[in-house]
Write a structure and sequence with these properties.
Order of helices and strands: HHHHHHHHHHH
CATH architecture of the largest domain: Alpha Horseshoe
Oligomer: single chain
Number of strands: 0
Radius of gyration: 33 Å
Structural class: mainly alpha
Largest sheet: none
Number of domains: 2
CATH class of the largest domain: Mainly Alpha
Length: 216
């Protein structure tokens, strides 16, 4: 075959080769898009409220590592997940930035309470109360601890404060207060708070049983 014929054949082959390459590349792009779409659709998503909270607070911290509010919330989530070491680690970071935050002390109190370290829990809740004197939940937990310790005067003092601050768990606060007053022999005050507990939760069996006990 002459040189001119070889050149002519090459000219005929090149367009077909180019077309083949283009088709192959197009196929790769389409396949890649399908795979990427499938991977995206198959990515795990948070299914529970706790998982969503975890993702939310982690995302906030990724944007602003100095967001102490998000870090405390993350510590609370870890605590609820049972990851105590992770919770403590987050609290230590916050304490280095702002050791006076009430919720840091409060979470430490909850961790101590969960581990049956009631003495440490009281100390932490007292620090939370000092940082925020209107922190009704700290008063409530201290009051319940003293009730369990049979230190009824201290229990009444803290639970009365919790009730006046409009504690979130008013039925439980009133019921515990009723128990403390009953142990002190102040049945009239006990009845008053048992009745208040039933106003908030009419199905609270413990309060009904206590009222029946005092009426017999």
């Amino acid at each position: 075959m002459s040189t001119e014929e070889n050149q002519s054949a090459g000219e005929r082959v090149h367009p077909w080769l180019a077309a083949g390459i283009l088709i192959t590349l197009a196929g790769i792009f389409v396949l890649g898009g399908v795979v990427a779409k499938r991977v995206y659709l198959d990515m795990p998503t948070p299914r529970t409220a706790l998982e969503r909270e975890l993702v939310t607070h982690k995302t906030r911290l990724s944007r602003d590592p100095d967001d102490t509010g998000a870090r405390v919330k993350l510590a609370q989530v870890y605590f609820r997940m049972g990851k105590i070491a992770a919770a403590q680690s987050q609290l230590e970071i916050v304490e280095q930035v702002d050791p006076g935050l009430w919720d840091v002390h409060f979470v430490r109190g909850m961790i101590a309470l969960d581990q049956d370290q009631t003495g440490e829990a009281i100390k932490a809740f007292e620090r939370a109360k000092k940082a925020d004197p209107r922190n009704e939940l700290a008063y409530y937990h201290v009051g319940v601890i003293y009730l369990e310790r049979e230190q009824y005067e201290l229990s009444v003092e803290n639970l009365e404060r919790a009730v006046k601050l409009n504690c979130c768990g008013l039925a439980d606060a009133h019921y515990s207060l009723g128990l403390a007053y009953e142990r002190l022999g102040k049945d009239g005050k006990a009845v008053e708070h048992y009745e208040h507990a039933l106003e908030y939760v009419p199905s609270l069996r413990e309060a009904r049983t206590a009222l029946k006990r005092l009426s017999d």
